[in-house]
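Good morning N.,

You mentioned wanting to compare the apo and holo forms, so I went ahead and generated the holo version with WT7. This is what I fed in:
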Amino acid sequence: MTESQTIQSSMVETRKFPPPARFASQAHINSPAEYQRMHRLSIDDPEGYWRETAKSFVWFEPFTRVLKWDPPHAQWFVGGKTNVAYNCLDVQIDRGHGERTAITWEGEPGDGVTLTYRQLRDRVGQCANALKSLGVKKGDIVTLYMPMVPELMIAMLACARIGAPHSIIFGGFSATAIADRVNDAKSRIIVTADGGWRRGSVVPLKQNVDEAVKSCPTVQHVLVLKRCENEIAWTSGRDHWWHELVDSQPAACPPERCDSEDLLFILYTSGTTGKPKGIMHTTGGYMVYTAHSAKYIFDLKPDDVYWCTADIGWVTGHSYITYGPLQNGVNVFMYEGAPNHPDWGRFWDIVQRHRVTIFYTAPTAIRSFMRQGDAIPAKYDMSSLRLLGSVGEPINPEAWMWYHTRIGGERCPIVDTWWQTETGGAMISPLPGCTTLKPGCATKPFFGVDVAVVDQSGKEQPANTGGFLVIRKPWPAMLRGIYGDMERYRNQYWTQVPGFYFTADACRRDEDGNFWLMGRVDDVINISGHRIGTAEVESALVSHPAVAEAAVVGVPHEIKGQALAAFVALKRGQTASDDLKKALLDHVTKEIGAIARPEQIRFSEALPKTRSGKIMRRLLKELASTGEVKGDTTTLEDFGVIASLRESDEG
Ligand code: WT7
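and this is what came out, ligand included:
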């Protein structure tokens, strides 16, 4: 734990921000005592707590048991039958809210769409019928690879409506990454678009799908939304235009009666090995947890214009653009493009024009805005904002203070929400009407969440001592497994600290019971809030014909939080050059996507290894971040390797 303790001592932060009285007076929960009472109740009697909570949802058949826990396998709301899309849409209409706005969307070029809850329900019904017409049945996994357009949300809800789990692939991934995921899920259908707008250019989504599908034998149909009108290739029989197939369908589509434990979606995330993990989320528990957490953490009210800037292709978008907010009946704002198009004022211009009340983004974005200067946000009227949120990585106190003053006008609480693809919903977060905030701190566990900071043996660490963050009890939105690999599920999450869910995050709990996240403890790094497994990038590099061996490590980066540094040993007969460096970067982009492109590549004859043959990443990390190796090198097999690495040029 020495590494954690160093992080800890540089993070002493004493500023405190109690909830502003104006915010607290209207909040769902507005006193620490009320939070304490509810949290206590939810921990002492979790089944009672969740039974009560689940009552406000529509179940076609009631559940007979709240939790069946056969570690590490949980079932929530056992026997219950429901439909998440129904709870998002029809329930709002039945409450008389059908004419309220569900989605306000803005495309990057400035075009826009708004849909009421009724219109959204009808569009979802049409898309669901179109999927059925292509033979999609309950249980079939549908892959979505789309830009941030309303049809992405429509397609995911259509899947939920007919009980076909979705697998959404972030639009920034490459053809190879698509193929890996489609093959793992054995998807027969992909929904995509001709392209999507990003910084004034077209992202060639359909072209990437065409490339991917060459190695995806299961794919029979590709449903294509016309978005950018860019030219695309067409495979007749396999490809179908959305406007031809979907728009002519009837709107009525009865919701599938899904079992509470039916798969709602899988979502691939990086782990410590090269192969992405298909994280499985099921129906009932996820539905209840995302709605409940969204309500309290974002203090959602019917008049809110709620904007989460994440892409729906990440879990943040699944839980807190679609499922959580819609179940609370708010107006969900969605934006297609880049934050700096046409300039760095775009987001604030959107806030001003759409009167956004809640804004949820990532620290890396905040740091990018900070760098552009205070004058840009100052030009806009952002008085509509009442609450801010942060997610994806620890927010540094400097960025927190900037966000608080320059964006929030010192009047908006900030909810720094800690969670993971695996947790399905936010686990540690302030409740904005009652939590005293500390810049850089995710503060307290949400209802029903039993987190602790422990050592390797599971023993709780004293206050202000770094350790592993674990979750001690099952929670409704927890992952149910890794698709196709239950053994890996057990090994990755349930064996590191016996009996507890292992988050792989380092953390400390302060004297007030607040949790301070300190980054990952495994070989996964966090670039701009996106988890990238270094092993995955290594395997992409090694798949290039010139490369014999590669090691990839994370180094600190001012804007991205972390960046990748790659150390590459070439095959005999290959020579290092700038051209080869560029070729390797392009290769990684092709294999995974631009988000995994290393910031630096260094060539060397060999990589530093221990006598047992393990690459010494610690040394590489030190070298990449400081240019020196001062740490312990006694286990190193050949010290000459370090000397040669130090001399090799930097990327
Ligand atoms: C990892 C999960 C949760 C949605 C986006 C990322 C880091 C996430 C915070 C936060 C400190 C955070 C952790 C976590 N992380 N939120 N508020 N403070 N760290 O989902 O890709 O599954 O990544 O992101 O390291 O384990 P993900």
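The two ends are 31 Å apart (CA to CA).

Happy to go through it together on a call whenever suits you.

Best,
F.
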